[in-house]
Structure formats: structure tokens, C-alpha cells
Amino acid sequence: MVLIKYWGFSASQPCRTVLYVLRSLGIEYEHHEIRPRLDTRAEWFMSINRFSGAPAIEYNGTKMIESVAISRFLCSKYDQEYMLFPKDEVARQKVDALLDINACYLRPVFMNSYWDLKLSQICFNAPERDEEFTSTTFDSIKINLGHLDQIVKSNKKNHSLENCTSLSGSNKTLADVQIYNEVYNVAYQLEINLKEDFPYLQEWYDSFQNDQLMKELDQEMIISFDNIIKMYKEILDKQES
Ligand SMILES: N[C@@H](CCC(=O)N[C@@H](CS)C(=O)NCC(=O)O)C(=O)O
């Protein structure tokens, strides 16, 4: 049995995706919970990833970075039933396209928004943002949630699905997991109610409530965020005293 080591923290969306892949495929691994900015910027971690981004894993002595590349690697090794990454090349292309859309368009908008509007103030004493910035940021979030709403809607139609359960094809894939993690964080941190404006997306989002593993990861995310906020506040208090 190959020993897999994992380094990450559960508040991080890409980390949760790798945890989802490891756990849903029943892969044994050694879990190392690390601290953003502290451990990720330490020499030992930067020798694994010079860009300081978690997650990272070690597989059979080889260090690996980037959540999508790690997840795809793990799927190709362990996902014999093609549960998370389809076998068919055309279906695969659609999953990859969604993962790229997430990395290029969704994640930069969603993640920056709750740091800019909320967490930087709590964690780093950053100044409050003005109304114009806040409203432009919410507009960008809504435009992107609107795109996802339409993607879910047309996938439901194209695959004659009874419910909105996936972004591409008939079953949930790696792309659903990765994008759910991004949507969950922005909706949780900024208390965005999807129901009113994004009914298809809301149905897709709710469908994760049947997924025990995802519910566990959601809980771990909340605890991890609380710990991170506490840690940053303590650092700030020390600096100020
Ligand atoms: N594209 C990378 C993104 C990794 C990333 O941004 N990780 C953040 C957490 S969400 C991080 O580790 N930040 C720590 C730091 O900036 O020090 C991936 O998908 O793995």
C-alpha cells in the first residue's frame, strides 16, 4: 500500500476537493492540518510549493501540488468506477472546461469578495470598503452565480434530468465538488441567499445535502475558518500590544 501524505486546511476550497476525492474513494492517507500564511509560507512548505498554495500531497515519495491536478491524478489511480471523473473523452472535456472556468473566472471573484468585504477587516484590521466597491463586488458575484444557474438549468434539460443535480452529465463529478466548495464559501461568508435569484443553482446546491461526506467537510470548513480567524486575531492583538 502506497503511503499518501496530505497537507492542507479545511477552510480552503481546493483542499476540501482533494479531501473529498481521498475520502470518497476510500484512499488511506496521513492528514497534516496546516495553517495558512504561517505554515504555507514557511521554507519547508515552499520547498513543496513555491507559490504557497495548499493542498499538497506526497505520493510514493513524490510531492504533488494543485488541487485539480492532484484530484485528477488520484482519480486516474483509484477511481476505477469513474465516479468522479468520466471515462468518455467528450464528457471529460466538459468537466475540465468547468474546472478551468472555476479557476479563471469563479474562484477569483468569489474568494476575493469575502476577503475584501469581510475577512480582511476581521483578520488584518483592513479598512471597511465603501458602498460603491461593495455594490460592484456583489454585482460580480451575482453575474457569476447567474452563469452557474444557467449551466445547471441547461444541463438538466440536455440530460433530461429529473432534478438539478450536476453541472455536466447525469452524475456529479470533480467539477461539481470543486465549484460547490467555492459557492459554499461565498454563500456562507457573505450570507447570500441563492433561492430568490438562482433557483436552479439552489436545487443543485441543496442536492449536496444528501451527501454525508460533503456535509462533514462543510462542518470542518466552519471549524477551520473559526480557528484561522482566532489565530489571525491573536497575531494582530500581539502586534498591537
Ligand atoms: N490553484 C491552487 C490554489 C491554492 C490556494 O490558493 N490555496 C490557498 C487556500 S484556498 C492557500 O493555501 N493559501 C495560503 C497562503 O496564501 O499562504 C489549487 O487549486 O490548489
From TrEMBL:
Stretches assigned to the GST N-terminal domain: 2-82
Q: Name one GO molecular function term.
A: glutathione transferase activity
* Alphabetized InterPro entries for the sequence: Glutathione-S-Trfase_C-like (IPR010987), Glutathione-S-Trfase_C_sf (IPR036282), Glutathione_S-Trfase (IPR040079), Glutathione_S-Trfase_N (IPR004045), GST_C (IPR004046), Thioredoxin-like_sf (IPR036249)
Domain (GST C-terminal): residue spans on this chain: 88-235
Pfam families noted in UniProt: GST_C_3, GST_N_3
Q: Which terms does the UniProt entry file under GO BP?
A: glutathione metabolic process
Q: What PANTHER family does UniProt report for this protein, alphabetically? A: GLUTATHIONE S TRANSFERASE D10, ISOFORM A-RELATED (PTHR43969:SF9)
Subunit structure as annotated in this protein's UniProt entry: Homodimer.
Name this polypeptide is given: Glutathione S-transferase
